[in-house]
């Protein structure tokens, strides 16, 4: 039955007062009350019950829309995280490509210097050893790229070309709007229609205090000697046991309304605490990234340059050069990791609430 509509009518056909004994037995015509009967019956639930059923159906549809919107937010968030994962994995791989090129230049230079006697043969071995370490690390990063590609395909079905984009796009994150709009959090979207469903169920239970009614119209065909007949009747439901039937159901559904309200309030408090923690973590990451970009990375790069200059002038060995260069590379990778964490945290926050 469609919500709020009358149930389908019923068709009744039959024979009434057909004699099976006595002198008129098995005769269609000798008994005046023998008749072939056809009728239509219609049950009519009370208006309040039908209104509650319509409200319940509307709320159910709204709940499905809310769940779909929450799923869309989750997909957009996961797609953004996968995109960022691939972007920064490829950025890291680019860093190691540059390091390998520098190592190759160093090996070529050392070969000539060893031949000229200005460098030790052990230096060439150290450079080759660094090349092997770089190759191992490059393979690890390539595996990270492939995993990130698989994750992005999982959410988008295709791989974008990131080669022309040096920087990841900035996410639009309005913290004031986020904190003031937590009632539109994806996890809370379904609560409003669920509460509406519970209230509609409660209203339907209250409406059951009033009985339904129905009507029946029938036509009876008799022998021509007696004439046909028409009958009409009304039926009324009598809710005579409200204390044991309707009232317990009403109380139960009232508790369901109160439970959903309490659950929503608890979820909102939990979400607010979680978002506050996420915002604090984002701010911490942003401060750490700022220090990494403004101080730690420039210092590591300057140290690598100074150490290389000292080596070229004979005041440092190659081991110090390689260690300083490795430290600079790790600082650059650390900066990329922090940038990835900042943008991932922004993405998680940006897709928490519905538009």
TrEMBL record:
Name listed for the protein in its UniProt record: Heavy metal RND efflux outer membrane protein, CzcC family
Tell me which domain of life the UniProt entry assigns to the organism this sequence originates from.
Answer: Bacteria
Q: Does the keyword Coiled coil apply?
A: yes
Task: Could you list this entry's UniProt keywords, alphabetically sorted.
Answer: Coiled coil
GO MF term list: efflux transmembrane transporter activity
Q: Tell me what organism the protein belongs to.
A: Caldimonas brevitalea
Q: Tell me the SUPFAM superfamilies matching this sequence.
A: Outer membrane efflux proteins (OEP)
Q: Which residues form a coiled coil?
A: 131-165, 250-295
């Amino acid at each position: 039955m469609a919500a709020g509509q009358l149930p389908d009518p019923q068709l009744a056909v039959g024979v009434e007062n057909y004699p099976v004994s006595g002198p008129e037995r098995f005769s269609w015509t000798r008994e005046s009350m023998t008749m072939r009967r056809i009728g239509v019956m219609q049950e009519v639930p009370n208006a309040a019950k039908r209104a509650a059923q319509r409200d319940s159906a509307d709320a159910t549809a709204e709940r499905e829309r809310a769940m779909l919107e929450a799923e869309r937010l989750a997909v957009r968030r996961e797609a953004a995280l996968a995109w960022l994962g691939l972007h920064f994995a490829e950025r890291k791989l680019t860093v190691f490509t540059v390091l390998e090129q520098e190592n190759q230049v160093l090996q070529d230079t050392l070969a000539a210097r060893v031949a000229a006697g200005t460098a030790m043969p052990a230096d060439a071995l150290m450079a080759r050893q660094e090349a092997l370490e770089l190759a191992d690390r490059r393979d690890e990063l390539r595996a990270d790229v492939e995993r990130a590609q698989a994750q992005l395909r999982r959410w988008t079905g295709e791989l974008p070309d990131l080669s022309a984009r040096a920087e990841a796009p900035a996410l639009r994150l309005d913290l004031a709007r986020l904190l003031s709009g937590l009632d539109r959090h994806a996890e809370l979207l379904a609560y409003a229609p669920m509460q509406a469903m519970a209230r509609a169920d409660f209203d339907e239970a209250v409406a059951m205090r009033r009985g339904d009614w129905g009507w029946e119209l029938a036509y009876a065909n008799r022998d021509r000697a007696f004439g046909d007949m028409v009958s009409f009747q009304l039926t009324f439901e009598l809710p005579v046991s409200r204390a044991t039937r309707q009232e317990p159901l009403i109380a139960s559904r009232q508790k369901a309304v109160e439970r959903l309200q309490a659950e929503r309030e608890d979820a909102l408090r939990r979400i607010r605490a979680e978002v506050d923690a996420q915002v604090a973590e984002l701010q911490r990451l942003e401060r750490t990234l700022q220090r990494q970009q403004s101080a730690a990375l420039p210092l590591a790069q300057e140290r690598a340059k100074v150490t290389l200059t000292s080596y070229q002038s004979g005041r440092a060995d190659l081991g110090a050069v390689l260690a300083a260069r490795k430290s600079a590379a790790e600082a650059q990778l650390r900066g990329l990791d922090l940038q990835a964490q900042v943008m991932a945290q922004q993405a998680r926050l940006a897709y928490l609430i519905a538009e």
